Fold this sequence. Notes:
The chain is mainly alpha-helical. It has helices at 10-29, 41-54, 61-72, 75-94, 97-109, 115-130, 133-151, 155-172, 177-186, 190-217, 235-246, 250-267, 273-307, 309-320, 323-342, 345-363, 367-384, 389-400, 407-410, 415-429.
Amino acid sequence: MKQANFKALLPIGVFIVLYLGLGILFEYVLKVPMGFYNIPIVVIFLIALLVACVQNPKLNFEDKLAVMAKGVGDKNIITMVLIFLAAGIFVGVVGRSSAESVAYCLLSMIPVRYAVLVLFAVSAFVSLAMGTSVGTITLIVPIAVAVANSSGFGIPLCVGSVVGGAMFGDNLSFISDTTIAACNGQGCAMKDKFRENIWIALPAALASLVIILVKSLGADVGEAVVKDYNLVQIIPYILVLVGGIVGINVFLVLLLGIACGAIIMLVTGATAATDMLANMGSGVSGMFETSMVAVLVAAICALIGEYGGFAALLSLIQNVFRGKKGGMLGMGLLVGAMDIATANNTVAIVMANPIAKEMADNYGIAPRKAASILDTFSCIFQGVIPYGAQMLVAISAAAELGYQVSAFQIIPHLTYPFMLLLSSLIFVFIIPERKKSVAS
């Protein structure tokens, strides 16, 4: 291991100060809508990379390039980027119109008294299928507002249930940015991470449903929201979901999903043949920033590791968090701190991955468990911070329909993230580790 050097962590500090500082300035001082997401995160990472390159004059620039190239060329980084792009094509081909069909189908079948439960369940399924909590919230919040107006439930309760369900799916989806980043960063199969993760997420989801049901029972309900729906378009999502669970290679699953989705969208007339390639391009473009962040963070982390920064951070963590359970908690708090600083759970995982990998090796934490902890804790923090994309998009979607609701009205109704935190702590400190015959 390299000699510990806390100064090597300066690039991370520069990134956090610039990104968090500018985000607060844009969002709360200049009142720029979606202020945190108007900051060019790739530019901020480039500045942090420049700082890393300037450090350690004993190492010439050519050698630093070699270190960065080794970090960027890592198998897990290449795999991560390719999966990001394939997932982008899948979402571009299939589109997102099926989300509304799922929602209106269930709302038409289930009594209006349970409409908020339906919103949570639909958001969970859509996010699990699409792999994006933000996209799910964009689609389902307008439906949640309509449900609130028609049924009599409060808008904060309905919107909070949508955000909670979206975070459940984001945490478990096989094509979610966070799952891809966590699994490839820790070197584990997605199916193994899913099977580990489900024992944390499912109890939290069931507890959330019970709490939402209790909140719903006291309301005076009105009429149900009824609209036409078409469920044929959800077949590609189900194909990808089932394929991932049974352990089929993620690339093969995505290719099957893309092919199936293209056929269905063309046959049903949902997409014109001339628009299909453009939709693929749009889907890939949506993943460019995430892919570039993964590349830049890999380069920065390679230099930080070479300079001894991760050795210093690992030494500090080991002095504070002792034992395997302490190590798991420390790993969760590490990615949580990164998420608070970046307001982006995927970026938080990518940044935390290298040190988390070292922690997993030193504490004897299985890769599947490390990936699960990183993904879960990042979703917990991302689900409740008032300046995260999920919260801002939910507020914006409601505002576009003429309803003003604040983050602090929604936060008390974010049942799932709080239940997920409780479930995670029980998982770390109380539940004994499940034995597995083959290491993963």
